[in-house]
Amino acid sequence: MQSFDNLTDNLKGVVILTFAAAMFSIMIALVKYAGEGLPVVQIVFLRQLGMFIIMSPTILTDFPKSIITKRPGLQVLRVCLALIALFGGFTAVVNMPLADATALGFAKSFFVTLFAILILNERVGLYRWGAIFFGFIGVAVMVQPGTSGYSVYGIYALMAAAAAGLVMVIIRLLSKTESSTSIMGFQVFGVGVVTLFPAIALWQQPTVKEWMLIVGISCASYLAQKANIYAYKHGEASLLASLDYIRLLFATIIGFFLFGHLPAVSTWVGSGIIVAAAVFTVYRESRRKQMLTRAPEARSFNNT
Q: In CA terms, which of 79, 198, 284, 304 is 20 to 30 Å from 204?
């Protein structure tokens, strides 16, 4: 443990982010296994239930503040979008190779930028517009619309990425007036309540193995989210954002050894375009912030 403490903050962030990426990849692999015998809605509900049990000490300690909100409309919209992201993402994972579903999920970063422009009125320059354009070219290469390689589950993954991107923008709006406990609590309760009755209607009695998979999904989800938060607490966002794509490597390795799947050429090419466009965007943003902080008018802010 002492050796970890001696690492620089950025290296600590990299180590923790790598762990988060591994946990995320394990989670989607377990979802794929569970989806062989259980409906997706049941997996989503049981995952939320497991997450609630794990997080209940935090949520219940702050109850009822954890479900009190000043912006109920945005909270409800976020829950609806979270449902779309979970159902679309899990359905894609169950029916596609892990690496393909993971790679398409990276389109979220471009949707975040696009929705930030439309909703938050953020100003975007030519370079970021170019990155968005090439990012979606990469998506088109992987989805292959109008060809024999087209799969409707690629649209599910893309739909999940779009919903997740919009959720990120909504969280930025909610964070201005809501506590993190309230934002977290609403999703846990909201998604759980909405999926309760469909899960009961389509219920398949899980085997002992499937119960173990559900426990694993809940624990891996929780650890991935917590590790992701701690990673960004230690390391620079510009560095860690460009390393998040290590999930594709984990998904490829796990997909090959557990399911015998290797990404198609279109996945390698498309994901390469997406990763390159996203990393370029992160690099440009990092350089832009460095230029801003070095400017004379920014010195007063640096010294506060």
A: 79
How does residue 231 score in pLDDT terms, banded at 50, 70 and 90?
Answer: confident
179/70 Cα distance (integer angstroms): 10
Domain ranges across the chain: 71-177+264-298
Q: Angle at Cα 112 formed by Cα 106 and Cα 117, nearest 5°? A: 145
CA-CA distance, 110 to 123, in Å (whole number)? 14
To 10 degrees, the CA torsion angle through 4, 7, 11, 17?
Answer: 20
pLDDT of residue 291: 44
Going by the DSSP 8-state scheme, the letter that residue 244 receives in this structure is T
Q: How far is CA 143 from the centre of its chain?
A: 19
Plot region of 264 (φ>0 → left; ψ -120 to 50 → alpha; else → beta): beta
